[in-house]
Amino acid sequence: MYPVPGQYHLADISTRTYRIEKASFPVDVTAAALIEPYKLQLDKTMIDVISINEEELVKGKPSSTLTNWFTDILLDETQNYYNGLIHFAIQNYGGIRVPFLAKGNVTVGSVYELMPFDNIMYIVVMKGDKILYSQGGDNMDMFKDAEITNTGIFIRI
Fold first, then answer.
1. pLDDT of residue 57
2. What is the pLDDT of residues 113-138, one digit of tens each?
3. Alpha carbon of 131 to those of 68, 120, 126, 139, 140: distances in Å?
4. Distance of alpha carbon 111 from alpha carbon 45, whole angstroms
5. Which of 143, 111, 120, 117 is nearest to 130 (CA)?
6. What pTM did the predictor assign?
7. Which pLDDT score, from 0 to 100, does residue 133 have?
8. Are strands 104-107 and 49-53 parallel, antiparallel or unpaired?
9. Helix, strand or coil for residue 11?
10. In sequence order, which residues have a C-beta less than 8 Å from that of residue 45 and are 6 or more positions away?
11. What are the Cα distances from residue 64, in Å, to 8, 68, 69, 115?
12. Are 78 and 123 in contact (CB under 8 A)?
């Protein structure tokens, strides 16, 4: 097989996580003074302990302790808002932004590190025979004609 001029393919991917520590950069005193009152107020909330991990939870594919833990939380919390039975939950692997969650206290701040963006849970009602399953998890053709509105996602099957 010969390469086609102007076309490329991905041969390999490797990733690393770099944690940036406060001590790595000099402090801008003016900026620090400006945000200090807001930081103090925010810090009071971010240190609240909301759970305790008995072991370190690690992110991995296709399944891992961290992704399973987080998906279980989605399932349990969503069930609190829905009267019917929810059979399973799905979450976006790429949406989890840390490689692990340490053993010990889980704080509000560590959850924001885990998923730092505004996230929304949707409940999709479907017949069992219409749920597509693929071992790799990439078979999402069923959503190609989905209509997303401010009240949820509607799929025509």
1. 95
2. 998 777 788 888 776 656 654 333 45
3. 20, 21, 7, 10, 10
4. 12
5. 143
6. 0.60
7. 46
8. antiparallel
9. coil
10. 108
11. 32, 6, 8, 16
12. yes
